[in-house]
Design brief:
The structure is a single chain. The protein is α/β, with parallel strands linked by helices. It has 2 domains: 166 residues, Rossmann fold (3-Layer(aba) Sandwich); 120 residues, 3-Layer(aba) Sandwich (Rossmann fold). Helices cover 52% and strands 12% of the residues. It is built from 12 helices and 9 strands. The strands form 2 sheets. Strands 1, 2, 3, 4 and 5 form a 5-stranded mixed sheet that branches. Strands 7-6-8-9 form a 4-stranded parallel sheet, with helices on both faces. β8, α11 and β9 form a beta-alpha-beta unit. The longest helix is centred in the middle third of the chain and has 28 residues. The relative contact order is 0.12.
Length: 296
């Protein structure tokens, strides 16, 4: 069914391709992003000089399973700049851009230098986020030279704030050497790496969850044993993946007193990217401190 949906999106794009190749809102460049995460990054760079709109802005929506509507496809096709995740994460964008090679774009996965088959959740890789901000500034400067200085200045300010978050992550790694985790989905592996967490989640579990299948009993047993025996200090929970296996893990963590930290794929309502990341890092810090107190 997903292949049919992507084909239909491509068909819609061909149908609207007679429209003007670029779009604007009130004379401002029109920037379309795949999710509100990348919209927040783009907005930080654009300021008031461009109109930024995400395709996915519902906190309950899972980008992995999102199917673009005809209106979504038309918005992407008419944009002057498209900012998206890439890495086979938001394929509905690729389906449109494949028909419009002339549209300026920023593919976060590519800009961040990630290799094929790497974890696609690159919005938790702060180096990639910084690179995306710089690339957005360069693209907008080319589209709208009158505000090039502002775009680049905004990007540098944003990148400085991102670097501050990265320093905090490194501080967690120094303060909690040897800390380990399990996760209900492989969303935050870049966060785990940056904060020095050892991810003990079985690979078979991740493979099953990624395929919308139930994990093998042996993999579930291993995860639950790690949680129940306090073999990990934190459980990372993606609330946008709702399965019986996920609920069992979260319930076990709550019963055993192992802290649970939410790691989302889109922004919580009313929160920008920097605030979201800062809140997640703060919650992870508190969780590891709680686990340290329990161990002592």
């Amino acid at each position: 069914m997903r292949g049919v949906a992507l084909w239909l999106v491509a068909a819609v794009v061909v149908a609207v391709s007679g429209c003007a190749p670029t779009g604007s809102q009130g004379g401002k460049p029109d920037v379309v992003t795949s999710t509100d995460v990348w919209a927040s990054v783009a907005t930080a760079v654009a300021g008031d000089h461009a109109h930024v709109r995400p395709i996915i802005d519902n906190p309950a929506e899972d980008p992995h399973s999102y199917d673009a509507s005809p209106a979504d496809a038309a918005a992407i096709a008419d944009a002057q700049l498209v900012v998206y995740n890439g890495g086979d994460y938001d394929r509905f964008v690729d389906a449109v851009l494949d028909q419009h090679a002339d549209i300026k774009r920023v593919n976060a996965f590519t800009v961040g230098g990630h290799q094929p088959h790497s974890n696609p959740h690159v919005f938790y890789d702060l180096d990639t986020v910084s690179a995306v901000a710089g690339a957005v500034a360069d693209r907008l400067a080319a589209i709208d030279p009158d505000h090039a200085v502002d775009y680049r200045s905004n990007a540098q300010k944003f990148i400085g704030q991102v670097h501050a978050l990265a320093n905090t992550e490194r501080g967690i790694a120094s303060a909690h050497p040897g800390a380990a985790s399990v996760a209900t989905e492989d969303v935050a592996q870049y966060l785990e790496s940056a904060t020095g967490l050892t991810d003990n989640t079985p690979e078979g579990y991740y493979t099953a969850i990624g395929a919308d299948a139930e994990p093998a009993p042996a993999d579930m047993a291993k995860v639950l044993d790690l949680v129940n025996s306090h073999g990990v200090q934190v459980v990372l929970f993606n609330p946008q993946t709702d399965t019986p296996a996920v609920h069992r893990i979260v319930d076990a963590a709550n019963s055993a007193g192992v802290p649970v930290v939410e790691v989302r794929e889109t922004l919580p309502a009313g929160v920008d990217f920097l605030t979201w990341q800062r809140q997640t890092i703060d919650k992870l810090t508190a969780a590891l401190l709680k686990s340290s107190d329990h161990a002592s």
